Amino acid sequence: MTASTRLLRAAVAAVALMSTWAFVAPSSPRAAPPARRGVASASTDNLGRQGLQLSASLGCAAVLAAAVLRRASITEKVSFDNIAREWRCKWSADNDKASLDEAQGALDSVLADVKSVDGVKSVQRVVCGGCLDFKVVVKLPADKFGDWENAGFAPEEAFLDKLKAIDGISTVETQTYTLEEV
Questions:
Q1: What's the whole-number mean pLDDT along residues 134-150?
Q2: How many distinct helices (H) and strands (E) make up the chain?
Q3: Is the distance from CB of 43 to CB of 51 less than 8 angstroms?
Q4: Is residue 76 in some structural domain?
Q5: Is 151 part of any domain?
Q6: Residues in Cβ contact with 68 at an 8 Å cutoff, skipping those fewer than 6 apart
Q7: Alpha carbon distance, N-terminus to C-terminus of the chain
Q8: Which residues 6+ apart lie within 8 Å of 89 measured at CB?
C-alpha cells in the first residue's frame, strides 16, 4: 500500500470517527468536554452498580474506522485483507526425488520460526509432480505484512540458502501477492 493510499484511508477513518463524535456529543448547552463525549455520565443499574456507558455509535465508528484502514484495494472491484509471500523452486526427479525430500527437510527446519511470525494466518506447502514445483506460501493480514517485510521476511534467507545448497534444486525464487478466499 502506498503512502498516499494509507494517508487517504486514515483521513476517511478520521472523518468517520469525528462525525460520530459529533453525533453522540451531548446536545445540551452544557456539553461534556471532548474527553467525555460519547460516554454517558456515571449511571446506576437496577442492582445499584455504578459505571460508565459507552455510546453504541462510538463503537460503530471505531469498527468503521478500523475497516476503512484495514481493507486495501487494487481496483474498485478487487480488494484484499491478506498478503502472502511465496518461496518456490524446481526440484529434480533424479535420485528417486531426493531433492524433493531435502526441500521438505529444509522447510521442516524453519517451519516453527515461520509459524511464530506475528500475524501468520497460514503456511501452505504446494508440490506439483508434473512441473516439479515446490512452493511455500505464508499468508498474513495486510496490516502485519509490512512488519515482516521490514524484518527481511525472516527466516526466508536461511530457508532459501538451504534450498540453493540442495543438489537437484534450481530456480529458487520469491513472490509477494494478495491471497483471499473467494
A1: 97
A2: 5, 8
A3: yes
A4: no
A5: yes
A6: 9, 12, 13, 16
A7: 21
A8: 103, 133, 134, 163, 169, 170, 171, 172, 173
